[in-house]
Design a protein that fits this description.
BirA Bifunctional Protein, domain 2; two-stranded antiparallel sheet; 9 strands
Length: 248
């Protein structure tokens, strides 16, 4: 599908995990009940000061984005705090900051993320995400939904639906659902949307950016017909002997 793979650190600064994505510093997702903060390193380095100041202005008053921002005093010391990354969007936002202005591009990352989740059949405190962005002035919401539908159809899932949603960093936003046959229900696979100007303009990007973050374990659970994603990590030896290494 023409994407370039990218990587980023598991221990990430709050700046890249939250602030650069226009997530306010008092957002509940940044609480210790939801996010794993780490003691070492004590602080993470921030990018160049001009970028940090643009992000700060966007939070406080909208900066040059035409927004009113979140109307609070943004604190640099909170942006330094290290966390176990809560989503691989931290990787795609880094790639976007380094992306040459005015040129189209496609990037993806697959990697572990960490959240204080209550464990059940579709939640674990550590799981993997498939994150991606498309940078293209001509891209649209139809491009985004069509790309995700094509991805899941290639994986063998024809029953796909999208539901309008809200995320601090995308507008419009949509959740992605696949039909889980043995549970007779729609299962959320992740979120998607178009990055808001409050995200892209401080990075120097004026083109439209389509973005998504999808759960990998839930996809594997459905492909292998498992009842819980925990079976991927607590599997029995007989299951491991029978499980295929890949699927064509």
């Amino acid at each position: 599908m023409g994407f370039t793979e990218i990587v980023s650190p598991w221990v990430e600064s709050s700046f890249w995990d939250f602030d650069a994505l226009f997530q306010p510093q008092d957002h509940p997702a940044r609480d210790m009940q939801d996010t794993f903060y780490v003691e070492r390193p004590e602080s993470c380095r921030l990018p160049d000061d001009a970028l940090v100041r643009r992000v700060q202005a966007t939070h406080e008053n909208g900066g040059d984005t035409g927004s009113t921002g979140w109307r609070y005093r943004w604190r640099r010391e909170l942006a330094h705090k290290p966390v176990l990354r809560t989503h691989t969007t931290a990787a795609t936002i880094r790639a976007l900051a380094a992306h040459p202005a005015g040129t189209p591009g496609k990037y993806f990352v697959i990697g572990p993320v960490f959240r204080r989740e209550t464990v059940d059949y579709k939640h674990l405190p550590m799981f993997h995400q498939v994150d991606g962005i498309i940078v293209d002035a001509k891209a649209s919401l139809a491009t985004l939904l069509g790309t995700l539908a094509a991805f899941y159809r290639k994986m063998g899932f024809p029953k796909i639906r999208f539901r309008p949603s809200f995320f601090p960093y995308t507008e419009p936003s949509a959740e992605v659902f696949l039909w889980l046959e043995h549970r007779n229900e729609w299962v959320e696979m992740g979120g998607s949307g178009i990055f808001r100007p409050e995200v892209t303009l401080p990075l120097g990007v004026s083109d439209r950016v389509l973005a998504w973050g999808l759960g990998l374990e839930r996809l594997a659970m459905m492909i292998h017909g498992l009842k819980s994603i925990g079976e991927l990590y607590f599997a029995t030896m007989p299951w491991l002997r029978e499980a295929p290494l890949c699927r064509s």
